Every structure is written in C-alpha cells, then in structure tokens.
C-alpha cells in the first residue's frame, strides 16, 4: 500500500547539504543590481498612470500567479508587486517555506510581462505611508485567506478603509502548496515502485542461488 505524505515531508522539499538559507534550505546565489535590472521593465509610471499594488510570497512561480497578475494589471496602468522576505513568508506559511529564496522569487516575478516594478522584502502590512510614497490607487488580493500580522491586525485594513482594496478571482485555484504536495506524492510513488522492483530482483536472485 502506498504511503501518504505528511507535513513532516515538507521539510525535505528544497533541502540541500550546502544550503545557506535557514528558511529555504537551498543554496543562494549572490544578487547584483545589474542582474536584477536585466529582468526589470525599467521605466517609471507616467503622471496619469493608475498604480496597482499586490503583495505575496510568489513562491514556485506558477500559472496561478500568472493569471492573478494578469487580472490585477487590469485595475490600472502600472503594476507594482511587493514580495515578502523569507522570514515573513516562513511566519505565515510555516514548514519549510518559502521553497525559493527572496531573490529567486523576485527574478521570477520580474519576468512577467504585466509587472512594472517589484518591492523587494515588502512589508506585510500595507500602510498609509506606503500608499502615499508609491502613489498607489488600487490594492488587490486574490481569493486565498488573508492572515493577520504579528499584532493580530488586518494587513489590508487601511486600503479597505479608504476604498481602494479589491479581491480578485483569477479562476485558477492552483497554489504553491498544491505543487509541493504533488512533488511529495510523486516522490512516494517513485519510492514505492522502486521498493517493489528491488524486492522482485532480490527474490529472483535468491531463487537462482537455490538452483
């Protein structure tokens, strides 16, 4: 009977013996401004552009993220994506998340054609100062649950109060968690198949020896 994956198995995903990150367990590369600039769109918003802001982990960048960013971009002309730091993501997702480190996630998001700018290590709570500094006109979030900040407050309280908060249904329910579970499930199936194959080979070898 095939074993079922459990939460402890998540700790093995993304692990590496020479890893450096206490959150991802994976080996990190050294980021440079030149490397990041190569992925960036590289232009400032125009005076009359409507600026949209979204934030998240964007771990294991996938088609669900793509669909969400496309829908978010329709709320304005210039899309800014805030990417949470490794410690922040680990706090609200737990286990061994994020799988990808911060700079890997930044470069993944910058490759998306709908993204105009990225805030590296964005704060979890969207403050009024942040809204004013970036001249944000709309703040969007997907249909996934919004977890409170460390003090128990709603991270989107201010955007909601001033009427610029929007929930987006991208019609795509794929999540990073689902991808990780799929990897773990396939890993178990692979291991079970190899165990059966090995047992069969041992049986045949023992039968030959008895002849």
Describe this structure in words.
It is built from seven helices and five strands, in the order H-E-H-E-H-H-E-H-E-H-E-H. With 211 residues, it is α/β, with parallel strands linked by helices. The protein has helices at 33-39, 63-73, 86-93, 102-110, 128-133, 157-161, 176-210; strands at 51-56, 78-83, 117-120, 138-141, 165-167. It is an enzyme of class 2 (transferase). It holds the Pfam family CTP_transf_like. One of its GO terms (cellular component) is cytoplasm.
- Which strand-content bin applies to the residues? 5-15%
What's the β-strand tally? 5
SSE class? alpha/beta
User: Quick one: overall form?
Assistant: elongated
Strand order of the largest sheet: 3-2-1-4-5
N-end to C-end Cα span: 32 Å
Mean pLDDT score: 81
Stretches with pLDDT under 50, minimum 5 residues: 1-21
SSE topology:
Elements: H1 33-39, E1 51-56, H2 63-73, E2 78-83, H3 86-93, H4 102-110, E3 117-120, H5 128-133, E4 138-141, H6 157-161, E5 165-167, H7 176-210
Parallel strand pairs: 1-2, 1-4, 2-3, 4-5
Features:
elongated; alpha/beta; lipid metabolism
């Amino acid at each position: 009977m095939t074993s079922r994956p459990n939460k402890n198995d998540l700790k093995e995903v993304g692990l590496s013996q020479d890893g450096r990150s206490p959150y991802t367990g994976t080996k990190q590369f050294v980021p440079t401004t030149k490397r990041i600039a190569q992925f960036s769109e590289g232009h400032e918003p125009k005076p009359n552009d409507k600026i949209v802001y979204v934030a998240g982990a964007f771990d294991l960048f996938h088609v669900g993220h793509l669909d969400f960013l496309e829908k978010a971009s329709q709320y304005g002309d210039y899309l800014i994506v805030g990417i949470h730091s490794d410690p922040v993501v680990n706090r609200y997702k737990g286990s061994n998340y994020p799988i990808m480190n911060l700079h890997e996630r930044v470069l993944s998001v910058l490759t998306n054609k709908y993204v105009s700018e990225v805030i590296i290590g964005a704060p979890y709570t969207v403050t009024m100062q942040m809204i004013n500094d970036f001249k944000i006109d709309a703040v969007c979030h997907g249909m996934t649950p919004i977890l409170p900040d460390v003090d128990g407050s709603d991270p989107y309280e201010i955007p909601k109060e001033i009427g610029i908060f929007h929930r987006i249904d991208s019609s795509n329910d794929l999540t990073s968690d689902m991808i990780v579970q799929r990897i773990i499930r396939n890993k178990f199936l692979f291991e079970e198949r190899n165990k059966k194959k090995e047992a069969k080979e041992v049986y045949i070898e023992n039968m030959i020896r008895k002849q």
